[in-house]
Specification:
2 strands; 277 residues; 2 domains; mainly alpha; 74% helix
Length: 277
């Protein structure tokens, strides 16, 4: 068996077999927790909100130095259908085209369209774009708050773990689409700056969410504490891999062999959490 065929088999096991084993093991053991990896639409929705917020941050951060790149992030919001996917959960059918989320994004998009047509990228124009991104963020925070209270999951470490998994999966997807790599996964160049910036931003946000989890809940259990510390270390490694454009196959191994299993174990613990009303 040649080396390339061996690598293909190993990747197949990592990508297909291991996640399937984790899923079916969870079902057999009848995990006692609020959510599972298999079909948690709630965590997925909050992951989408986090992705939208990340795009807004990149729009704001790029607009002064690279207006075109900032505009491409606006286009990516459309491509990913973030606004409609969120609005569909919070507005009745007749309001999806004129709800506040939709209107706010349309205002932002219009600022870019008008500036593109006039060629006017003045400070007043870029300031108006920054102001509009600042106006959208509180709307998304309000959606999160309403949803979390409704689901009784505010400050739930189990729920955060599921959101982290969703964001890491999206980060990996954007990384794959944002790089040019050879047949062995070595990165030759960054092919799409929008996707690469998203990959890096979502990796950072995942790390932030993990550090927001209350470490003290594990202090009386050395096994759980060691697992949590290992997860922190692996997320730091994931961040550095994305930042340093590490080999794509190496990142897949890290995600599926280390991070996903650790997150799965975290979710299997009965975690005490505070519900904020």
């Amino acid at each position: 068996m040649n080396k390339k065929r061996k690598e293909t088999i190993i990747l197949f096991i990592i990508i297909v077999i291991i996640p399937a084993v984790i899923y079916f093991t969870a079902q057999i053991n009848n995990i006692v927790c609020a959510h599972t990896f298999s079909d948690d639409n709630s965590a997925l929705l909050l992951g989408i909100i986090e992705e939208y917020k990340q795009e807004l941050s990149l729009i704001k951060n790029n607009v002064d130095s690279n207006f075109t790149l900032s505009k491409l992030h606006v286009y990516n919001i459309l491509d990913q259908s973030y606004v409609s996917r969120i609005a569909n959960q919070f507005y009745p059918t007749e309001s999806r085209t004129n709800g506040v989320l939709t209107k706010s994004f349309n205002n932002l998009n219009e600022l870019f369209l008008s500036n593109t047509e006039t060629g006017n990228n003045s400070k007043s124009s870029t300031d108006a774009i920054k102001t509009e991104t600042n106006n959208i963020n509180p709307l998304l925070d309000k959606c999160k708050k309403i949803f979390l209270v409704d689901q009784l999951t505010n400050n739930n470490s189990t729920f955060n773990a599921l959101i982290i998994k969703s964001l890491l999966d999206s980060s990996l997807k954007f990384y794959e689409s944002g790089i040019n790599s050879d047949s062995s996964g070595n990165v030759i160049s960054i092919g799409n700056n929008v996707y690469y910036q998203n990959a890096l931003g979502l990796a950072n946000r995942s790390d932030q969410l993990l550090h927001q989890m209350d470490e003290s809940q594990f202090q009386n259990n050395a096994t759980k504490m060691n697992l949590f510390k290992e997860l922190q270390m692996n997320l730091d490694t994931f961040n550095n891999f994305i930042k340093n454009t590490e080999n794509y196959n190496k990142i897949i191994v890290l995600i599926h062999m280390n991070i996903h299993p650790d997150l799965s174990k975290i979710i299997q613990f009965e975690i005490n959490f505070i519900i904020l009303f």
